[in-house]
Amino acid sequence: MAIEKLLEAIEIRAIEDGDTAGMGKLLNDPYVAEWLGGARSVKAVADAVSSGIEVWAEFGYGTLVAVDNTSNLLVGRAGVRPDLLNGVEEFELFYAVLPEFFGRNIATVLSYRALKGFFSASQNPSVISYTLPANKGSIRVMEKLGFVYEQNFVHANLDHVCFRLQRADLILPSDCDACYL
Asked: Residue 143 domain-assigned?
């Protein structure tokens, strides 16, 4: 799907109070939850939404959501948050999309916008992102944005691959002139 058509079909915006139910559907989708370490309780989802709103208020960047304009369904999320990698403070790009919306560049567009917002509001020189080695779709999103493989590590008792993006290496994905309006 061309990026322009995607942006006509979805709204990309900062997370809001009313997104708890949609975020719960996304994070508790069986396929998504499998990659993210399991289903989330109602409280955990509500806390994630609240935290996302607080980060926006404090730092001017945070979790973005994609909402389908036809169904009003929250179909994806992405953002940058603090994380630890081998005991070192880092900033992590995170994203998830409902499986029925895979292959439409939603994760790429959301992630690009989240990274642009983060780098505009922060002087941090780089961002990490990681996933399980078998998650080829997630790895492809990272590579399309300019992330480079850095290392394997253990997270949540599972082997993960970690990629790093230097500020200057963020790539505007091909056919993505409208990614950051």
From this structure: yes
